[in-house]
Specification:
7-stranded mixed sheet, 13 helices, 37% helix, binds pyridoxal-5'-phosphate
Length: 367
């Protein structure tokens, strides 16, 4: 049986990658902000339409180190409908996550519920642009100004997304991207922080490279989270093909939508106004009350045919073993409900229309 995975990493032609890494054999410069690192940094600043960027070893370190660089205290408002990384990055900085619910339309933070969670201990908001859907950046900006809070976006899903013609990484104090193998754009593992304030960038740089500033100068207490030259070379190659890759994803999603629209019991992802999407994911909500079939049954049916959809995100982070004794997921009821209904369907640039049909046939017949 042919298996269809939920995703498949984008890779350049082998020859293209070999050509890109050839000069590393001349220089023997494998890491530490080499030529490839600097070239990718330049190209991403342009592609993402941002002022400033720091490349890092992965998206998690982008989040963890940008939070650390802000010297935050106390509580941070975030959502539980996300990947483990978002909540862990807050907790690993000694901060307390306060979970805000999501809205049922685009699954990002419900901005009408943020203010009631703000206390005198609140120092920041960490919203997530889930599935590439853009948060209500304007309202978040207003609230953060009113209460003097920092905003760090988890932008792991929004590579290349723009809002009102502006790169999504230019909103908030910092936006953290992931270039993990499974994301729309990958550097094998990798990530970046886009930021507003140059001083913050300096702090993040210190944190990613032991605080080393010169041969004999160590300015700060830092870790090691550098992107190496092989990662950067992968990024340079993948970036050449990114528009084509996103275009292919768009076609696949169009087809999925055509097949699954207007079906009782199925809710498709929203289409946002003034957003240029990257077509990162295709989440579908299954409503048992309307169709008689729940998400887990559909998940199982697909699996029996060798199709691996993903319960993304389930469980909520406030239900994890390591957090559940401190939180009650009933306090984020919309997130809880969406997490029980959602399935992200297989999606990658080279997924064939034949496979999409097969997946949709199983879903439609299964309902
Ligand atoms: C992938 C991801 C991360 C972490 O990125 P890595 O590069 O895997 O460390 C963080 N947040 C979200 C929402 C993600 O999907």
């Amino acid at each position: 049986m042919k298996e269809i995975m939920v995703t498949r990493s984008s890779m350049p032609q082998l020859e293209e990658y070999v050509e890109e890494i050839k000069d590393i054999w001349d220089t023997h410069w494998l890491t530490n902000m080499g030529v490839k690192h600097r070239e990718l940094e330049r190209k991403l600043t342009e592609y993402l339409d941002v002022e400033n960027i720091e490349l890092l070893s992965n998206g998690h370190m982008a989040l963890e180190l940008s939070i650390q660089a802000m010297n935050l205290q106390g509580e941070v408002i975030t959502t539980p409908f996300t990947f483990a990384s978002t909540t862990h990055a807050i907790v690993r900085n000694g901060l307390v996550p306060v979970f805000c619910d999501i809205n049922p339309i685009d699954f990002t933070i419900d901005v009408t519920k943020i203010e009631e969670l703000i206390t005198d201990k609140t120092s920041a908001i960490v919203p997530v642009h889930v599935y590439g859907n853009v948060c209500n950046v304007e309202e978040i900006e207003r609230i953060s100004r009113k209460y003097g809070l920092k905003v760090i976006y988890d932008a792991a899903h929004t590579f290349g997304v723009t809002y009102k013609g502006k790169g999504i990484g230019s909103f908030g104090d910092a936006s953290c991207f992931s270039f993990h193998a499974t994301k729309v754009f990958n550097t094998i593992e990798g990530g970046a922080v886009c930021y507003r304030d140059k001083e913050l960038g300096d702090k993040i740089y210190n944190l990613k490279n032991f605080g080393i500033r010169g041969e004999e100068s160590v300015e700060g207490v830092g870790a090691n989270a550098k992107m190496n030259e092989f990662q950067a070379a992968m990024g340079i190659c993948n970036l050449r093909h990114i528009d084509e890759e996103i275009g292919k994803r768009e076609k696949i999603i169009k087809y999925y939508r055509e097949r699954l629209k207007n079906i009782e019991g199925i809710q498709l992802n929203c289409v946002q106004k003034e957003v240029k999407s990257n077509f990162a994911y295709f989440p579908v909500l299954f409503d048992e009350k309307k169709s008689g079939k729940n998400r887990d049954e559909i998940f199982k049916k697909l699996k029996e045919s060798g199709i691996y959809a993903r319960k993304y995100f389930y469980p909520l982070t406030n239900m994890f073993e390591c957090y559940k004794k401190y939180y009650n997921s009933m306090e984020t009821p919309v997130a809880l409900e969406v997490s029980k209904k959602v399935l992200t369907l297989p999606l990658y640039a080279d997924l064939s229309i034949g496979d999409v049909n097969k997946i949709c046939d199983i879903i439609v017949e299964g309902l």
